[in-house]
Amino acid sequence: MATRHSRSAARIMMAPAVILLLGWMLVPLTMTLWFSFRKFLPLRGGDLGWAGLENYVRFVSSSSFWPSVQATLTIVGGVLVVTVILGVLLALLLDQPMWGQGMVRVLVIAPFFVMPTVSALVWKNMFMDPVNGILAHIWKFFGATPVEWLSQASMQSIILIVSWQWLPFATLILLTAVQSLDREQLEAAEMDGAPSLKRFWFIILPHLSRAITVVILIQTIFLLSIFAEIFVTTQGSFGTKTLTYLIFQRVLESQNVGLGSAGGVYAIILANIVALFLMRIVGRSLDA
What domains does the chain contain, in order, with CATH numbers? Predict the structure, then answer.
């Protein structure tokens, strides 16, 4: 049992890391809050004084604000649906004995380590280019007119690109959960004559519920700040302007740091609302 002296020593040793972590989080947050109440135009006079709630009102009353929130939630929801469903199927497939199983698992997980910018460039130029892309050549082979993916199906294209990046993460987490499943329970259900679909629905899926909620929670936190894929492919056009991209436009294109900082505060609020909602779902799943 840890003594009072050992606990105090542990706190002292952990203190530098905790202080550094708090500083790493609190300093940018404090600066964002400060600038959100200032009229700060770096190339047009610098700090022009106190603005109060003007930046918040201007940002939320912009015609692009609610469409950007909708686009953000649409991308997050679409990616979660694709990665969870395909992740479960891939996890069950990779759990089956096969030749070269280890190599197959490595290849499935590999896209997660590709930088988002590189991934978006590959999809844009190699697959989705309407003239020289692989998908265009497939369409021409069957006598169909190639699709201009990034303009005619822009939202679906972004969801596809981001899902390709995050599918390995979901598969890895779900594969770990599948491997912890009690095989005797499955064998007993099979001996009782339960078909494969019922075994999946009543045994495998409930066992994966906690892993699925963890995947949803972690992915949502990162997907709410999606930026690189949109910047490389559509640059916010065709209804793909997310809240993060809108903030980028306000700060760099309009050179209005105060307005962009107000948008950053709105993004933090949105992320916390979604996180609290998901945490309640995760809590219910863990208590079940």
Answer: 30-287 (1.10.3720.10)
